């Protein structure tokens, strides 16, 4: 390996010199500020190259693949990096962009044989691989060189040493790119065709979020002439999550992708028309709360396609009755029949949204009136008839409906005879009348908004990513589809992490059925890269009885500490918890989450830790930023996040009784941990953990009593 190291060291110096030279040359060219379009385009190109060279300067590449195309005797070493760099002199690539077709070899090659192929714009290229090498470079220094394949040598087996090295690293407060270790099954998703909707069911830590972000970077590279980053959107479950993933795309050289929660995005269409969105299922995660089945049925119905269809039918009724039945008569004896006006509205302007049609009809009526008035010029010298006619037109237009999304929705919900499959509970109707709305009202409101106002081109998307899609309702997706006519969707989630009883889906069919039959691709990611084997095995057992055919996670072979189950006395809990946290920090752990059952408990524990001299960030549902370090967080807010160490406190039966919701909550909480997982309780541990305890504790494990 020393020889390989020396070889790469020498090669790196050459590469760095070439990159530096190009940088100096480009930096020496003054910016063009003139009006010449060609010069402007050239200047833009130079600026883009400069940006790329600056990225390449620190860590120019991460992999090397020696590949000989069939028909060539010698292999060519291909260096793969985050951005491509061209050798000016030889007009050949110095570093190949990881998204380029040939770079797919690096990810798809598994070493079972020496043969490999990739699809280039000219067709399939086949050849032989001689070497696959990972090269970790930090700040222009080689840190590590690992050969995962050398032709003619016995392969090291299934363990990807470089991947394990990467997975063993500490995490900071942001999700990071994985270009150097993208796995084959992930690469297939990243490079999947653009206009086929993809639905991905993936176990916790399988890289769903990360892969979706890499897919955006790939699409922008591959279709740079057709797609723009500003027309891409990522829907995430909450604002803190948006913050948490916000570094990955810039790291990949992609800027300006829109990132929203569904609520923030939808709400923006209404200006001041809507009141603030309230938590509608406030007791969702309250302890010991009972669920009102009538409420539950109503909330689930509101997210369903059946409700969507009912709203759509109401809009068809509105359209049919939009034009008043009586004709327009500007003066005695002159009549424009209602049928004619309806024909304009229903046929000639049918491509417009309803309110636009109304505007068009009004403008046309005005034109019609002008023509008719011209004929009257001689008998109406003082303009008396004109005045009266205009007055009648205004009165006539007032007879047209003036719906707003809000008024139409309210009217429908409060109409007793409205034919809903599930009747709205009286309390809900009362709330709505007092103008109080919740998240599940936004999809129908936006649906109505689109019917009334339409969608302007700048609000449409080229590609939509929906993360944590198990929490998205079919109605939300149906609305979103109107904003992305190309059906270019990446939808990802995990049914075992569906912890919202009143919303979301229970099987992927519910969302897939929204796309034309046979057009949607469904992929499963079953390998988990985040957590150690011990943590995964422990977490799997918690949820296994509720998996209902959904695959539980397969860990990569990365062993770590056993999961610890600690019993503490209630009186000493705060002292012992602070001690555990401090011990982890002293071991060099970067991010620690102390996870509680409710938000109120998080507040209490954060205060207790502070009393013990441990400063922790309290994370609540309104939080928009994640700071890393030590956090105290309610279990249901941990979804999508990850921490080096997780301590779940008070995991007793009162807080986590044996049922599906609590099993899923614990599953989510446990699978947030990368390296260390601790379950702490001052009462008997929840029975949900019994089976798990037999799997994740390792040989040395067992319940420890802390004093
Ligand atoms: N190929 C890979 N190489 C290195 N790290 C990876 C790889 N794939 C995933 N990871 C890491 O695994 C962790 C989990 O990734 P990510 O959060 O994208 O998973 P997820 O499937 O969205 O998880 P969850 O459903 O639990 O939110 C991240 O730290 C990510 O960097």
From TrEMBL:
<dbReference type="InterPro" id="IPR027417">
    <property type="entry name" value="P-loop_NTPase"/>
</dbReference>
<keyword id="KW-0067">ATP-binding</keyword>
<feature type="binding site">
    <location>
        <begin position="202"/>
        <end position="209"/>
    </location>
    <ligand>
        <name>ATP</name>
    </ligand>
</feature>
<dbReference type="Pfam" id="PF13538">
    <property type="entry name" value="UvrD_C_2"/>
</dbReference>
<dbReference type="Pfam" id="PF00580">
    <property type="entry name" value="UvrD-helicase"/>
</dbReference>
<dbReference type="GO" id="GO:0016787">
    <property type="term" value="F:hydrolase activity"/>
</dbReference>
<dbReference type="InterPro" id="IPR014016">
    <property type="entry name" value="UvrD-like_ATP-bd"/>
</dbReference>
<keyword id="KW-0347">Helicase</keyword>
<protein>
    <recommendedName>
        <fullName>DNA 3'-5' helicase</fullName>
        <ecNumber>5.6.2.4</ecNumber>
    </recommendedName>
</protein>
<dbReference type="Pfam" id="PF13361">
    <property type="entry name" value="UvrD_C"/>
</dbReference>
<feature type="domain" description="UvrD-like helicase ATP-binding">
    <location>
        <begin position="181"/>
        <end position="532"/>
    </location>
</feature>
<dbReference type="InterPro" id="IPR000212">
    <property type="entry name" value="DNA_helicase_UvrD/REP"/>
</dbReference>
<dbReference type="InterPro" id="IPR014017">
    <property type="entry name" value="DNA_helicase_UvrD-like_C"/>
</dbReference>
<keyword id="KW-0547">Nucleotide-binding</keyword>
<keyword id="KW-0175">Coiled coil</keyword>
<dbReference type="GO" id="GO:0003677">
    <property type="term" value="F:DNA binding"/>
</dbReference>
<keyword id="KW-0378">Hydrolase</keyword>
<dbReference type="GO" id="GO:0005524">
    <property type="term" value="F:ATP binding"/>
</dbReference>
<dbReference type="GO" id="GO:0000725">
    <property type="term" value="P:recombinational repair"/>
</dbReference>
<dbReference type="InterPro" id="IPR027785">
    <property type="entry name" value="UvrD-like_helicase_C"/>
</dbReference>
<feature type="coiled-coil region">
    <location>
        <begin position="2"/>
        <end position="29"/>
    </location>
</feature>
<dbReference type="GO" id="GO:0005829">
    <property type="term" value="C:cytosol"/>
</dbReference>
<dbReference type="GO" id="GO:0043138">
    <property type="term" value="F:3'-5' DNA helicase activity"/>
</dbReference>
<keyword id="KW-0413">Isomerase</keyword>
